[in-house]
Hints:
Blueprint lengths: L3 E4 L5 H10 L1 E4 L6 H8 L5 E4 L4 H5 L6 E4 L9 H6 L3 E3 L6 H16 L2 H9 L18 E5 L3 H12 L3 E5 L10 E3 L2 H7 L2 E4 L13 H7 L4 E4 L8 H9 L5 E4 L18 E3 L8 H19 L10
Parallel strand pairs: 1-2, 1-3, 3-4, 4-5, 6-7, 6-9, 7-8, 9-10, 10-11, 11-12
Helix pairs in contact: 1-11, 5-7, 8-9
Bound molecules: NADP nicotinamide-adenine-dinucleotide phosphate.
Amino acid sequence: MPDKVLITQKLLKSCENQIYEKFDATRLYEQKDPTEFLRDNGNKFTAIAGYGVDASLIGKMPNLKMIANFGVGYDGIDINTAAKRSIAVSNTPDVLNDAMAEITIGLMIALSRKIIPADQFVRQGKWKAGNFPLQSELKGKVAGIVGLGRIGKEIALRCTAMKMQVIYFGRTDQKDQPYQYFEDLMKMAEICDWLIVATPGGKKTNKLVDADVLDALGKSGFLINIARGSVVDEISLVEKLKQGELAGAGLDVFDDEPNVPPALFEMDNVILSPHQGSATRQTRNAMGQLLVANLEAFFAGKPLLTPVI
Ligand code: NAP
């Protein structure tokens, strides 16, 4: 099989360099007219490296056999169309768990201690007029994890280290886990101080955290979303924050990135993070290496290291 790889979106430079070293690679995103390029050359490529591959792109590549996704979440890939065409898909699980768990705890501590407003308080010279108001701590609070998967489990470990009580919601009661399971998200949200969203995106989890779940979380509850914007009803979230019906939110992901609802800019009980959960040098390098290792396995006729399908 010819090892021709099409890089559809800009990836980490070191990852792209390796793809160029090891395979016959082309950057689609650098083409003047990608549509014309695909019409003339789409049949030449066997594999894609990228993170957004829809049915239309797959349709323009009749000899496509493999999609190497840069990321663990593969909601940007049309898996059904890939499966129908027997196209293999890989992702980059596990190597980003620690970075994801760190940003989650970072958002939580920053919110509970108001670290960003406190910094402004000092810089603006307000300290001279009196002390910053008392805040709350994480110790003793209940952290409800929506999706106790690879990332969720690392978050749970760190919440335990913060002396929080961890509970979780998902479709499966994971009996080997030491945390209490809830099959009803509303019931879990009612008793949570922190609701931490760590599921995949896509149709099945679309607006899983809706207005009712946010109501159940209530005035003293914080929402953390490091999963995908689609999992939370963003319009309801903004409305509830505006009305003071939630204590605050830490958001790494949004419905229509990089567009963020401007109403959130005014709120000092909200922390906005530009989808940078896995964006550390170590983790992105590890993701790039895993992507390349999957491409190598594919072209060598070996099983993928981390197959999605
Ligand atoms: P994972 O190991 O597959 O875990 C996903 C968890 O979600 C599982 O515990 C699963 O449990 C639960 N889940 C799946 N579908 C569900 C549904 N319909 N309803 C309720 N729970 C559901 O995935 P992971 O590696 O932890 O990654 C999780 C997600 O994090 C990724 O898919 C991605 O969207 C997001 N992510 C974000 C960033 C970022 O930069 N912000 C970076 C990496 C990943 P059950 O099967 O028991 O339901």
